[in-house]
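hey m, so remember when u said the tokens were messed up on ur end? i reran from scratch. heres the input so u can diff it against urs
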Amino acid sequence: METARNYGTAGSKRRRQRRKPEQETPIWRRSLSLSRGFLVCALLLGGAGIASPIASWLITTVALVVLAVELPKLDWQGLDSRSRMAAWLIVSCMILCLLQVVPLPGGLWSALPGHQLAAQVAEAAGGSGWHAWSLSPDRTLAALSALAPPSAALLIAARSNAQERRWILRAILIIALLSAALAIVQLALGPNSAPMLFSSAHRGLGVGLFVNRNHFALFLLIAILIAAVPGIPGSARPAQDAKAIEWAARLAALALLALGVLSTLSRSGIFLLPVALAAAVLISQRRRLSPAVVAGGAVAAVVLVLVLRVAPPVHAVLSRYATATEDLRFRYWTNTLLAARDALPLGTGFGTFTLVYPTYEPLSEVRPDVVNHAHNDVLELLLEGGVAAIALLVAWLAFVVYAAWRSRAEAGGRRDRMVPIVAALAVILTLAASLTDYPTRMHTIAVTLALLIGMLLPTPAQREAGSARRILFAGPLALLGLGVLSTQWGLQLAAIGAGGAARIVAPWSSPVQAAAANLAVLRGDRDQALKVAQRTLALAPLDPVGVRTEGLELIARGQAEQGAALLSLGAPLGWRDILTQLWLAEQATAAGQDAFALQRMDAVIRQEKFGDQLLPLMPKLLRTQAGRNALAEQLSLNPGWRVAFFNQVARQPGWTMAELVDLIRHLRRAGTPMTTAESGLIRTVLAANDRFGDMRTVWHAAGQTALIGDGDFEAEKGVLPPWAPPYAWHTPALTGVRTEVAAAVTPGHGQALAVGSDGLAQGAAVQQVIALVSGTYDLTFTVSADDVMLVQQFGALLQCRRGEQTSGLPNVPVALTWSSGADGWQTARGSFTVSAECPGQALILTLPQTNGRPFSAWIDGVSIRSAPRPHA
């Protein structure tokens, strides 16, 4: 037994002595499952952002665990210069976040740029004591936790050896390929059947495992660069087959990834796609490209463009480029730049964009969707972090350039020389995408970038982590993780109505406290509502829920002056809080401030709330000059409720025609005249009440000079309805007859009315209710058909109307004469006289009689003009 034990011991010693240094267990593989699990989790679930708070919390939590395990093992004194620079940059970001949550004396805090409105709210709420630099320190700490996933990814990549870095690059590429394949399926199946991992506003387009198509397109562009790295695509095969297999795998991967980018229909992604593909070709080449190869590639690119031009997705993308100037991003940038200018040089605090932006958002830009980001990360960084944040961004960019240069200079193999180029290009692509969006706020993008940057660093030395070092790192990370967990838990509790538990779980979170305040109001717990609202404003003075809840509760307690003063500050806080806007509108209406009240109503309706209740209150403003001025000012902004407003005017009596015409003329002078769609119901009601003169007045006051509406059939397109308001065409329901406004077959005629009949129907081909004053008029219209004799069988007459009645009233026939035109169209002309006994009329163009012979024809250019008076 003794001999056996000695033999076994000696054998073990010999085996340990024979083990090569490069075969020793790598540092990373000691926590292999944790690190790889974190990377896979971040790459698969990190494209959701705020759409999946549970996924975000999971990624952040696992990242904090990775940092707690790996950071104590670093030999900080043995770090090289690049690793020290990266560490200091990360620490600088953390320090900036922490500085923003340090409490400051009230006088100093209120004097900070961009803090004046918050100081007014704090004073009105009775909380003008010490406050943090950040306008919402809890949101700033949440932003600090967002540094955990990229920091963990950078550490993992930095501590990995060549084999492990290859595994990381392949993992990114494989997940990108799977996502690209899924995106193509999503586009093919459409919005109703597409398989989606997360709920997305871009459903039916290619989003892969993401929520936003622009972010997904960027991820695929980075994967295109990775696919070009030697040795990443392909498999382990004999030397004679390796090159061919790698090239085949690379081409297949590039093709699938490029199709994935196209499936997103993302303008920025497709704009950057040629850049990424060209870079991939250059990276994958061992030698300098010859002129013949470059020329061949250019020809292939031109052919590809010509082929893709006929593809429907490409047409959809080109149409989106045509409307790029109308993109709301430009307005977001202007508003954010104004806010950032006012907050320079310090900024408002990380995570405060959603509190600050509404205070700069114009009413004309309010929509149901809330603006969560500036869609320009550089501007948002300037707003929240000030000059210091921009300086850190520049420092990071300079570090990437320096580290890529050093890493490439020290690299041995070709793959190692290409990775720094890929990392630098990935940063450039991300920076370009960040000028129109916010991609780095997605964990997948942030982690991928951090992994590539980590590969620019040499593997640092290790040391055994003592318990003191573990506690030093694990303690703060555990507190940060606890804060993230409690905030998410609190929000979930508030979502299910457990407001009391929510505020206890996350007393430091202003969103949780605001949600709890709302729940307390709904339950009627006024004491609790006031208490929680005060807590909310102590954390975030610009929180509109806190302002509204505390203000209303103070008024209910008899402190009307203080409550009203606080609620009045809800106006400069923006247009978004519905209940605040309703209170402000009520108070302004009572004080006779029509313009202010109308603005608040407008803000509520633009968010698609309480439109049925607020719109009926507006027509009474027509009765006063101040009210009409306020209406004209608000309607000139072209809100989405203009048609609904004029429909309410049509339904509600009490206004005079002079008052309505005054409003219509105001709109014309403002450059936003009443449209035919907006006046349609008013014209209909006036005609039904036999007020044809007033109907005509409305028609002309809105800027319509013609005596007939849309005589050239250019305003609408499609099948004519069986009924339409006055001054609009319609076709009575006749069996065997079809009328449709479409592009005329003859060039130069634009749209015209296509008439098809089975030859059996008799009656009106098309008609329109009008209101001509008594007098003589000339009627003109043109017709085109293959049968010339058929054309001249079309007729015309005027049917007199009183209200909706036509019986017992005379019809006015129109005798027509015909003349031929050079383009094959024939022109009909005729005169008629309208008497005072015919206040309203229906112009009717009648069908020809063909005794059952089907026909088709085109009608265009219908016009009525006053006949010139004969000379004495």
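this time it looks ok to me. DSSP finds 34 helices and 13 strands in the chain. if urs says something different then somethings off w ur setup not the seq
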